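DM between two lab members

TW: hey, do you still have the NadR/Ttd14 AAA domain-containing protein entry open?
JB: yeah, one sec
JB: this one, 323 aa:
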Amino acid sequence: MKRFASGLVVGKFAPLHRGHQRLIEAAQEACGRVVVMLWSEPDFPDMPTDVRAGWVQALYPGVTVLPFASGAAPVPPPNAAPGEVHRAFVREHLPFPVDAVFTGGEAYGEPLAETLGAEHVVVDRRIEGLSGTAARVDPLSPEAELHPLVRGHFVQKVAFLGAESTGKSTLAQALAEATGEPYVEEVGRTLWVEADGDLPLAEYETICREHVALEDQAVQRARRFVFVDTNAITTQEYAFFFFGTCPPEVQAYAARCRERYAHTFVCAADIPFDQDGTRVHPQVQQYMDGAIRNDLTIRGIPYTVVGGPLAARVAQVRAALGV
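TW: and the structure you got?
JB:
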């Protein structure tokens, strides 16, 4: 039998680090059920409330997670509000009575527990080598020691788009080699070659799904960047070009590109067209270049055009990324 029927953990979890995890795990060990209340007002633009709540829920599916997003009802109190305001908010929105409040010893713990008629349980969150400050200032630093799920959020995926034979693959691979970061190949081209250019429309969703899976795997190997050859926007444009239509699943993948990639580079069609036997036609290159740029503009996705020989392109990208 556990010590408490129910327990509460409150925090911003910005980002969720091993100290926070120790706190939640201590609550789980001691309580039959645990609720985590999470908010920050103002919110963190680079890791908004729903993202932080998603981390907690994914790592602790047995916990009740209550996120309160900035600007959404019920509106959470400002971070600078008096303690009694925060305590009243917790008491009003607590989904069930709790017997214990778990903290790392912060000053708010005792008065909050008293307000809720609960016991204050102090958990030693200190972990040798862990720096909470480092986790906030630079989540990708070794000292942050974030869970791979959390750390992956801060790795920047860099997409290289463009028409056929514009040097996307060569540039992405060159950047990966120069920086020691992972490279994700264009799944669509691989399947296109395997199908000898006769790829059915039904396979376009497979392209997107497998491509995203490779990106997610690469994120776990990355230090700061993942260099990606093409994304679902290109897949969508080719579906429209060859079939006059595009599956809604592919369009959904394309819609997520705005949030998924930190940087988008478009390779200019300023190098000789290389007909290696798998490509369509130079005129298609011109069409796709315009279609991709138009799509990015409509979606409001900022992009940088890179051109010239490979060395110049690498230099342009490195300057833009600051690496």
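TW: got it. The radius of gyration is 24 Å. The chain has two domains: 4-147, 155-321.
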